[in-house]
């Protein structure tokens, strides 16, 4: 009797599990930036040609054009990417499984969000580092969260099945977006939008432990780069005055003081405080904290000119 019940239960459950497995496999197969960037850096030939690795949040992913550099650059940054993953990605391909054998520079988009991003990162994004990069957070993410089929994005799945899905990155990992073609229209920006974005970039939801951990990983990144004679350039990418004046002053001071300290402590660290750089006007922005493609290209060329002046580390 029990045997028959088990057989019937198995016959009922197995087709469901098969469908879920098929859906999970298909869903993970949808092209995405996490998978592309991981595959690119795992390719020894491609990775060994990289001289400059760009890391950070969307302030790097959208704001720094890797095509503007004299020597090969690649963008491994992504939206809301926390400093712990910037460190672990660099460690993985510079030390653990050396692929970045000719790396000279690491450019990190550095601002208040760099130090607070992890505390605001959802599990749905954290699992992408486990799935596509084989990297994890501390504490480890519960295995159950790694099944994308439990929280699917049916819109993307439908677009992919119908051949209408558009990727949001190019061959060098830079953002691809029709939105980036436009310049900001300040008449359409509300005070609520400014406040929400300022809150997102502030330390409001971060504990002292969160900030201490981010500081620890920033120092570890500097030491790792130093041990391989790699420059670490911390760049505060341009922000609109509308946003900058609404980010808590204490948060800005803490972030800048930490960068100043890093520059004094490590001979391979350079700090570029360009949050309010006069070379960037409103028509260089697509929204209050992201450059459009013209502004991102301008920033790319400015950074390239800085890299050319850096001394050889030995």
What does this 3D model show about the protein?
- The protein has 314 residues and is of the alpha/beta class.
- The chain has a single domain, classed as Rossmann fold, CATH 3.40.50.
- It has 13 helices and seven strands.
- A five-stranded parallel beta sheet has the order 2-1-3-4-5.
- It is globular and about 80 Å long.
- The model has no long low-confidence stretch (mean pLDDT 88).
User: What's the number of structural domains?
Assistant: 1
CATH topology (level 3) name: Rossmann fold
Q: Report the uncertain regions.
A: none
Reading side by side through the largest sheet, how are the strands ordered?
Answer: 2-1-3-4-5
Specify the helix fraction band: 40-55%
Keywords:
314 residues, alpha/beta, Rossmann fold, five-stranded parallel β-sheet, two-stranded antiparallel sheet, 13 helices, globular
Helix and strand arrangement:
Layout: H1 2-28, H2 33-42, H3 44-48, E1 52-55, H4 58-61, E2 73-75, H5 83-96, E3 105-109, H6 112-120, H7 123-133, H8 154-161, H9 191-201, H10 208-227, E4 231-236, H11 241-244, H12 249-265, E5 269-273, E6 285-287, E7 290-291, H13 293-307
Parallel strand pairs: 1-2, 1-3, 3-4, 4-5
Antiparallel strand pairs: 6-7
Helix pairs in contact: 5-10, 6-10
